[in-house]
Task: structure prediction
Amino acid sequence: MRGKWFVAIGAVLGAPMILGVASAQDPIKARQAEFKEFGKRMGAIKDTVIDKKGGTLADVAGHAEYLAGKIPQIPSWFPEGSDKGETRALPEIWLNFADFEAKAKNAQGLAQALVVAAKSGDQAATAQAFGKLGQEGCGGCHQPYRRPQN
Amino acid sequence: MSRGGATLALALGFFLGAGAAAAASPEELARGELLFHIGGCTNCHTAEGGPLLAGGDPLETPFGRFYAPNITPDPETGIGRWSEADFLRAMREGRSPSGAPYYPAFPYTSYAKMSEADLRALKAYLDTIPPVRRPNREHELGFPYNVRWGLLLWQWAFHDPAPFRPDPTKSEAWNRGAYLVLGPGHCAECHTPRTWYGALDDSRAFAGGRLGKEVIPNITSDPEKGIGRWTAGDLRGLLVIGIKPDGDFVGGDMAKVVRNGTAKLPEADREAIVEFLLSLPPR
Result:
């Protein structure tokens, strides 16, 4: 009987703690983890498309689909005030939030174009679409809205 | 020979001479185009969305704001009246046709290392760019940098117009890479920090630093501060498409360097650059 009480109390006390951990999780850390995964995927695409060391165009399409699915969420990863802390996000994001959203939308389109190119099996078109996604998609925000690395 | 004959011969000679200077071979033009790309001319001399080489966006430096001039063959506002000798002098000595010294924001300090044949090929290629009439903007510089004659002193003290000399102990590819990086590519102009008097600090060659608002990375083989942990494949990815080992892409001016320059190089030249850069001593 007593054991059950402990379990019940544990559950009552524990649940908010778990929730607390998730919700208190810093939006900065959370989005950094997401972007790290983006970087890994982009690196994997590079290995296939530029270095030609493993992976197929089907894998490239898979990575690009992942990115196209995630990119529309980017603006939601930048709640107001989340330029405070260990982040390279610039306050300009919130001064031009409509532009920030438009840039995310543009990047999503470029990721989708990469999916199409990779599925077509055309190596050159895939490389080109990949470059465009990196330079204009990622670069679209990294240049105006991110503090340069020290 | 009669006087008429001499005049005819002279006229013919003049005509042939002019013809030979104007008509570059397709090979020479192709070489000129390659040098135009790796030379990054367009990065400074073309404004965003503006006509090719008709003058650029402001270049922010600690010394002030520079506006790269119109270098299309327009005779009034461009360099259409320049002779080949004028062009060689500008690229090697940093002097205008009238002898006025140029600011080293125009990287003649690197271009001087180019071979004469390459400089001629580049001029021939530039002659094929459509002329655009667009007056130049004055640079906006503070004292003492706005005192042009000070540049004569600067050039005398710091500009070495010696052409590139290959290192016979190194491979042909290494030397080709060194030539492209140190000469037309003028990589050191940003990647090597400057002293307070605006000369490149060779003791810190390619160690990076700050330039205006941009943070310039260290590209020596230092494993912590530089790119000592990069593979040839990593560097190739950067030069072809602008991707860094962490999957991020270069931005700002380097994005232009990649797009207009290193991405357009023949593979052998790019590999040569990779070989040379990975050999830079750590700093």
Q: What stands out?
A: Chain A has one domain: 26-145.
